[in-house]
Fold this sequence. Notes:
Blueprint: H1 2-14, H2 18-25, H3 33-51, E1 64-65, E2 78-85, E3 89-97, E4 108-116, H4 119-122, H5 126-143, E5 152-158, E6 162-166, E7 169-172, H6 189-200, E8 205-211, H7 213-224, E9 228-234, E10 238-245, E11 258-262, H8 280-287, H9 296-301, H10 303-319, H11 330-333, H12 340-346, H13 352-362, H14 369-404, E12 410-417, H15 419-423, H16 427-438, E13 442-448, H17 452-478, H18 485-503, E14 514-515, E15 527-535, E16 539-548, E17 554-562, H19 565-568, H20 572-590, E18 597-603, E19 607-611, E20 614-617, H21 634-645, E21 650-656, H22 658-669, E22 673-679, E23 683-690, H23 695-701, E24 734-738, H24 756-763, H25 772-777, H26 779-795, H27 817-822, H28 829-838, H29 845-880, E25 886-893, H30 895-899, H31 903-914, E26 918-924, H32 928-945
Parallel strand pairs: 2-5, 5-8, 9-12, 12-13, 15-18, 18-21, 22-25, 25-26
Antiparallel strand pairs: 1-11, 2-3, 3-4, 6-7, 9-10, 10-11, 14-24, 15-16, 16-17, 19-20, 22-23, 23-24
Amino acid sequence: MFVVHIVASFFSKLQEDPTKKVDRFLYAMRLHDDQLSDISARFQAEMKKGLSAESNAAATLKMLPTHVRSTPDGSEKGEFLALDLGGSRFKVLQVKVGEAMGINKGGVEMVEKTYAVPKELHLGRGTELFDHVAESLKDFLHEKNISLEKKHPLAFTFSFPCEQSSLNQGLLLNWTKNFRAGGLQGKDVVQALRGAIDRIGGMDVEVLAMVNDTVATMMTCGFDDQQCEVGLIIGTGTNACYMEELRHIDLVEGDEGRMCVNTELGAFGDDGGLKDYITEFDRDLDAASNNPGKQILEKMVGGMYLGELVRLVVLKMAKLGLLFKGHVSNALRTKGTVTTEHVAAMEEYKNGLNNTRDLLTDLDLIPTFDDCVAVQHVSTIVSFRSSNLVSAGLAAILTRIKQNRNLRTLRITVGVDGTVYKMHPQYPNRLHKVVRRLLPECHVRFVLSDSGSSKGAALVSAVAQRLASRRRQVDGMLSLFRLSQEQLRLVKTRMRTGLEAGLKSKGSSAVKMLPSFVYRTPDGTEHGKYLALHLGETNFRASLVKFKGLQHNSRLYNKIYTIPLEMKQGSGEELFDYIAQCVGDFLDYMGMKKARLPAGFTFSFPCEHTAVDKGTLMSWNKGFKATDCEGHDVVSMLREAIRRRNEFDLDVAAVVNDTVATMMSCAYEDPRCEIGLIVGTGCNVCYMEELKNIEKNEQKTGERGEGTPEGEEEKQDDGGREREGTEGHAGILKMCINTEWGGLGDDGSLDDIITPYDSEVDQNSLNPAKQRFEKLTSGMYLGEVVRQVLLDLTRRGLLFRGQVSEALKTPGIFRSNYLSQIESDRLALLQVRTILQQLGLGSSCNDSIIVKEVCGAVSRRAAQLCGAGMAAVVDKIRENRGLDHLNITVGVDGTLYKLHPHFPGILQETARELAPQCTVTFLPSEEGSGKGAALITAVARQKLKM
């Protein structure tokens, strides 16, 4: 029975399906999806390693920056020469990129000629190789009747690993593809080409760009499909490139935008990263290669090696008696007798078996039908493994792009070139299916490149020229917002002139310099409960503030009420009745309706004061238009509204604007604080001025002491200087001045720095020709200035593909808070694009960069102007006091100052440079308007009790 079983088993194996026999023999080459996912994860880790400056030296994936910063957008134009060197032949081309042909319109015309590279030049001297290239270039120019007198831009496709420090410079890292030309490794190949062109002579050529074939393929496909951001070569060798976020590329300075990275993926596994997937046949092939231990992945997938892998497998099976009845021919033992072309032929759908039989016959073998089936299956497994490994690497690249852009799904195009992909009948479909299976959330389109490496190099040059041209135009427009030190000093001088003029009793001044009748800052002894009321641009806020004397401590309770539009633009009586209603509600909320509390009223609109509790509204702004208010005392209107309500009583002891309140709030924390600054919806400054300098105050208080606290008249002479007091306490020397500096320039003094965009914003505002300085510096207007610049850039074709959207035409759509968000160092450009998309502005990566630059230019100018104005104020205070050096604190409030990531630093730096004799500390205010109004009331009440 045992003998029968052995015989049965023998005949069973003889009759076994030959493909199963091969499957068992090559089980290690058959990779399932879990293994491919594992390889892809390893690839991702190696990519990250290669992008880091710290680990790049040890990484097998070198992730070489190409300095290609953009794919084509279809607007490229020009005529270029192109050289394509990467194998046994090279091409010389003339490429014309049409101005109006663009995307999907076949806008590239090419004339080309192919030249051979003799084998002796592969291994000879580098100078001889490049001299041959230059001679062929000159021959091409002669043959095609291209002028030798004219200067020709040239693009150079060089399909070997290079380290680039610029687009037109590249150091050869190492030769591949059986090239070994001496004297070039570690040298700049562009310089070598230029030297050869000079030696040959008779040509005027400028090398604009050097790229490898993978990048050129991506650029070619990108000309027809703007979603193409990956290039893939599967030919003699294999490689991939993609558009990486610049902030992740440590080897290149800068973090804005993207740059194409050449992965050099063929080297993956050189560190043993694929050792558990490498078979004995891979080891034998590597050992016999020109570069053992190098380009491990490429030797598993590249067209240079697939045929040899098939030969090694068939040879081993024949030696084991699994094929050809154990017969091994000399031809089968000879390296290189099976090529990748044979592999492709064996896998043809209809003629594959016939082609297999013909190949084996040519190898002096006598194959059976089963032998042909088995060898064909060997070829299938080897080529299938190749496409699987490439799919794993490509999946890693696509996953990284998706993660970089924080997308749930990715829609992208991969440009592909290479003989294996083009000639192998099954390879493309296998690759596509596996990639989509590994990444079901990605929608990947594969586009076959047409003359990729040659056409693409010219497109790289065309894109570089387009970007350079756009850069010059954008820089020219933004230069209008760049202020020199001389211009800033002039602004400081004009502000100082405006401050001085505004203090005079005669003549007009754009800087109003309104007395606030606030004579002192807090000294820390303030105590008691005070009500603080604040009417701002959008809300009314009621607060209860408790001060605890020398403990320098306070507590604040508040409630915010939205002001309906109909109240802002209705009658004044309705507006103040609504304010009184809100105050009553707040007192109810606090359980203090029966208490008669002293109150301070922060009123954030221009008022002319005649006393600390009397302020006449000069004009509305910030969207308010309530009737019968301008020219009236706002405290009286509030008191009348409270009387009409007849539910509670208040002692409204002070009315101030928000800038003064901010100064007082910060002075409570820092006694050196004698300046208040608001940079928010509006922009304004107040400061403590010497009373003797306020001539307009003399005029107002000369008739009666209405502007001076009771009991102080006898202590001042006609110039406002202190007289000898009989009560033994210090007299009044200073008063806080509300500069209303936003009016600087209303007299034309800033016309030399006002841009056409500022003029457009001014003309479309509610108050044309008014508040010119404020319109250059405040949050209400900066977003609109940016919109005007973006609109002009788009109309010039420099943004958003020249397409002016309805959103971009809409005034006010670009809010100033977008500037703070867009300029945030933590915001990637993807998030900038998200903000733009929310506004209906579809943008490319380069569009986002320009938008960010526009925001930066506009906000930087605003901060510098505020800094110049502040320098004028602090220098005036220093000179008032006869000091060589001034130490002073500025209390600051406002959303633009607090939320913009760079505004405070630029403002402070400008002030420091323009007022070097002043040390200025900027103290952000907390609850400035409420706490400050309460402090003004407390200070006034304390003085009355003295």
